[in-house]
Amino acid sequence: MRIYSSLQIGDYHRNNCEDHLFVGEYGKNKILCAVMDGCTTALESQFASLLVGKILKKICIEKGYKEFIEKKTEPILPEENLKLILQDLLSELRIVKNQLLIDEKELLTTLIILLFDKEQESGFVLVIGDGLVNINGKITEFEQDNKPDYLGFHLTEDFQTFYNLQNQKITFNTLNDISISTDGIFTFEKLLPKKSQEEIDVIQFLTIDKVNSEKDDMFPFKLKTLENEFGLKPTDDFSIIRIIK
What we know:
InterPro entries: PPM-type-like_dom_sf, PPM-type_phosphatase-like_dom. This is Protein phosphatase 2C. The protein is of the alpha+beta class. 29% of the residues lie in helices and 29% in strands. The chain is built from 5 helices and 12 strands. The chain has a 5-stranded antiparallel β-sheet with strand order 1-12-9-6-7, with helices on one face. It has a 5-stranded antiparallel β-sheet with strand order 2-3-4-5-8, with helices on one face. Helix 1 crosses helix 2. The longest helix has 24 residues.
């Protein structure tokens, strides 16, 4: 199993990349991946996505410590594990918000989060906001008319009520080739002269095509190909994680 990732500032953004991504081990046999996209019109829009990534890293580290000192517990389904992670994430965000007196507008970020249990060979994806998920060749685009839901909107809500209202969920039992991406993947435009005479499907090229998958830096090669051969670059910030078995 190989995990590839890429984070790139959009061509229309000059100061900060508002996207962020995280890949980590949640305990011994689980992989946690997440991509985040900060709200452009929010205050310091890059802050929220970075903060979520740091908190997810903390949650993974703490899980590793707990499994080290605790006796083996009964396995639970990936959705239940991810639900616990999300609950911890929102709790940590509330703590930071209160300690630093942060405004809600400083905590606006989308979140696509994936948990895969290697032992159970099953996984779960939750999408809060917009973006793209490809599960073994089945692509699902999550569009919210450029008015995405943001994690920061839900800090004061009862968690169970909030979670029950989430309907952008995907469960899968096989991992062959899976990608999660922020909505920057939809924003590739022809900004440079095109050398190739062929046309290319950006989403298929990034999430299905396996050219250069034998290399750890597969995405840099693919992004350079899109730029140099087809003149295509993302105009919005873009983050993607892809897992190939």
